[in-house]
Amino acid sequence: MNVFLYAFAGYVVLGTVIALMAMKGLRTQEEYYIAGRKVSGVVSALTYAATTYSAFMMVGLVGLSYASGVGALGFELFYLVGTLFLLSYYAPKVWEMAKEKGYITPGDMIAERYGREVAVVMSVIATVALIPYLSVQLIGVGLILDKTSAMSFSYGIAASAILIALWAFLGGLRGVAWTDAIQGVFMLLMAIAAIYWVHCNGFADKDFFAEVTRLGELLVVPNSVWTPVKFVSLTLPWFFFALTNPQVFQRLYIPKDRASLRRMVILFGFFGLIYTVIVTLIGLELRTMTEIGAFPRVEDRDAVTPTLLGLMPPLLGAAISLSIFAAAITTANSIVLTLSSMLSRDLFGSERVGTGRVIIVLLTFAIALFAYSRPNYIVELSVLSSTILLAQLPLILGIFHFKGGAKIAGISTLLAGFTTAVVLSFAKFSPLGIPAAVWTFLVSFVVFFAASRLGI
């Protein structure tokens, strides 16, 4: 029996036990979706990190670093700096408002400011936008399982979908947060193990820094991949991720007090910096090893990590595979829970936990179908989601900085931004050489301020 399957079986049992333990007392939406606002700072930080850093990192970003060079590090650090900047300023304000007014979903805050109809539109757009990002998690898992011969790509997607639906269905956010705390530490430890193995096997008798400097443009930005337009198109939506992506925005509701919130931000910053540097370094070392003949040349960048795992000792490969699997599952759990809360509460106006559980099952089925088609690379799918979600940014910032704007302004902003992002992204069209993310950003703000000036 494949060694990964033993590890996988243990992981399934442990996660299911945690989800069953977390079921107790999940009678209200506040308990089910935001763990009763009683999460400690350490667990909040680890669940924020595990929700953010998914298969995107150990599969997508390793491959991007391998294919494009050090620009991938700048791209991801730009996200981290933006997130810490936004959290430092907005997290205390969001936490206080949510606690005082009883917000459960991001749509609750939008509904109070712009009207329930705007929250309805936002819930639908967020669902459409996040299906590609959710599919990334299943695609990453499917590729790992297929490459390690644990199971086929399609069976890997099916197994992932079942676990996502089951654990979110049973344990709600409390169960997800408990597993996140374990998985966050496991993810970081396995990333350290991966870079140690790669370095020892590729550069035991060579100087990595001397070898990598011979790669030319991979250490230079801009280069043939990281043009200024490419960099802006990927980093702009990522910079505002903390405000526009509902699954992490909702995480700002869960710390039990201000001290826990502050601890969450600080610890997440340390986690993110260490994890990002390690992951991009893995990609750069593997590319350097390819050039010196110590690692196979991989054309499909999303297959770089699966190829690496196939060369590792079985036990180590299984452990790292499991950490990627865990990262993907916990991210998907969090997103599905958040979308379930928005659809059941904001769209359908239901206060029942049971409604959300039904939506979880339906959502997961739709995501599995999308992932099975594997429409694009992992990084591009992730950025597409965040590009669409930029349409929400003017409304969120408007709550704190702008008094104008009402229902029509909110709806028109969301629809204009969504349409711009989808049309330009799928048409692969950049008017005036300006990428879709920038156009989405500009159109959303122009429509918001224009409609607000009219008092609608």
Overall geometry: globular
Question: In terms of per-residue confidence, which ranges show pLDDT below 50 for 5 or more consecutive residues?
Answer: none
Give the CATH H-level superfamily: Sodium/glucose cotransporter
Number of strands: 0
Largest sheet: none
Which bin fits the share of residues in helices?
A: over 70%
What's the CATH topology label?
Sodium/glucose cotransporter
Per CATH, the class reads Mainly Alpha
Structural class: mainly alpha
Q: In DSSP terms, counting alpha (H) and pi (I) runs of 4 or more, how many helices?
A: 20
Rounded to the nearest angstrom, the radius of gyration is: 21 Å
Indicate the mean pLDDT: 89
Total tally of structural domains: 1
Distance between the termini: 64 Å
> Could you tell me the strand content as a percent range?
under 5%
Give, in order, the helices and strands. HHHHHHHHHHHHHHHHHHHH
At CATH's second level, what is the architecture? Up-down Bundle
